[in-house]
Amino acid sequence: MKPIIFCDFDGTITETDNIFSLMTEFAPEESEKIAQAMMEQTVSFKDGLSAMFHLLSTKQRDEVIQYLMDSAVIREGFGDFVRYAQDNNIPFYIVSGGIDFFIEPLVEKYGPFSGIYCNKADFSGEQIKLIYPNSCDEECAKYSTQGCGCCKPSVMRKVAEKDHFKIVIGDSLSDFEAAKLADIVLARDHLIERCEELHVPYKSFTTFHDCLNIVQELVQSKKAVTTT
Which phi and psi (to 5°) does residue 172 adopt? Predict the structure, then answer.
């Protein structure tokens, strides 16, 4: 068995969605309208995210970063879960629609990771501009519009090998396309609702100790099967 982990960041590794928290603090009225359009799917995730960050001046960079460093809470058990993956040589990828300037410093002490795939911020202009290095591949339904921003299924197709057992961990609708490619889904919040609606098997979690128990049992059961 060759397990491989693809884990979301906002609302999964962290207790709350950092982008939502940030926009509520710095641009509540304008960002709420954009978020509503994204939920209604009248605006793509990529375009909506770009519009949100365009509301913020690059002069606010230090204030924005400090706010997130102070307010973000890493979910209980994350360090133990990462160490288990490291000790057992399980590739661990963070794949997120979040932004590098807060993801990387928040997880730095837990690494190294096999890779961090996320969007990037450009602070060179007057407003914060987002860059999307993880584009949709030709198998993605949004390939023609490149609407995903960070396309999680495309990352999985690029990274995972045929004999990998793919573990997807997430909490939101943006994780669902990745969940459909998984061999097992560990889900919470909105991702549970979507998995139930469309009959995608999942196991629920609250903390990463839950995730650790699930993965340990899975690995042990697969070892037992291969030795009998």
Answer: -125, 175
Kindly report the backbone phi and psi dihedral angles of residue 59, in degrees, each rounded to the nearest multiple of 5, phi listed first.
-65, -20
CA trace torsion 138, 144, 147, 153 (10° rounding):
-10
Strands 115-122 and 129-131: antiparallel
What are the strands of the beta sheet with 115-122, ordered from one edge? 129-131, 115-122, 92-99, 2-7, 164-170, 184-187, 203-204
pLDDT in tens, 155-209: 999 999 999 999 999 998 789 899 999 999 999 999 999 999 989 999 999 999 9
* Residue 172 and residue 195 in contact, taking contact as beta carbons nearer than 8 Å: no
pTM exceeding the 0.90 threshold for the entire prediction: yes
- Residue among 205, 212, 202, 208 nearest 182 (CA): 202
Neighbour tally for 155: CB within 10 Å: 22
- pLDDT tens-place string over residues 87-107: 999 999 999 999 999 999 999
- Tell me how far apart the alpha carbons of residues 7 and 111 are, in angstroms, rounded to a whole number: 14
Neighbours of 202 (CB within 10 A): 19
DSSP 8-state assignment for residue 89: T
Please give the angle made by the CA atoms of 5, 186 and 44, to the nearest 5 degrees. 85
Q: Which amino acid is present at 118?
A: C
Q: Which residues contact 170 (CB under 8 A, 6 or more apart)?
A: 7, 8, 12, 178, 179, 185, 186, 187, 188, 191
Q: CA 37 to CA 212: how far, in whole Å?
A: 36
